[in-house]
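[SOLVED] Predicted holo structure with zinc ion

Edit: marking solved, answer below. Original request kept for reference. I posted the sequence and ligand SMILES and asked for the 3D complex as structure tokens.
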Amino acid sequence: MPSEEEDLVNKLSARLSGEIKNLPKDGTDHAFTVKIKGNRGHINLGHQTFDIKTTKEPPPEGSNRSRGCPQCGQSTWRYTQLCMHCHYNLHHHDDVAAYEQARAHKERTTHQLLKLFAVCVGVALLIFFISDYLPEPLKPWALALTGVFGLLAFVIITSPNEQPARRMRNRHLAMVMDD
Ligand SMILES: [Zn+2]
């Protein structure tokens, strides 16, 4: 940080601490408003207002920075680790939810692959058994089809199905970053 900005930050910090000490000790809530106006080099700051509030305040209604707490159901800050009402660990909750979702997805995929495997084996066996009753010119084709479905079944049962879970987790991460 250039020393000029460091100087500014130090001055601001000192001023802010002073103002906080001077707040009336009457037990009520007080709010600071810091207004910044200016044009520093190539960065046009325009007008910016920061509100510093001494009390915990819920996020504005309908804001994309708010979320419902899964434990107490109240509206709390989306990116804060703990719920502001009941201190439920939201980050941990999200991790567990993402893990469960990925596991369920993997289970579904495995189930579908098993069904597909059974179908392939069934078709291969069926063609193999009816090939005896087929006309002579069709028999090589039946044998080839049996081979193809048998191979498909082999590929399905030996394919690693770790991938869907990993993709799921990445998608979850992408969603979090998009927000
Ligand atoms: Zn809560």
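OP edit: The pocket of zinc ion is lined by residues 69, 71-72, 74, 76, 83, 85-86, 88 (CB under 6 Å). Thanks to everyone who chimed in.
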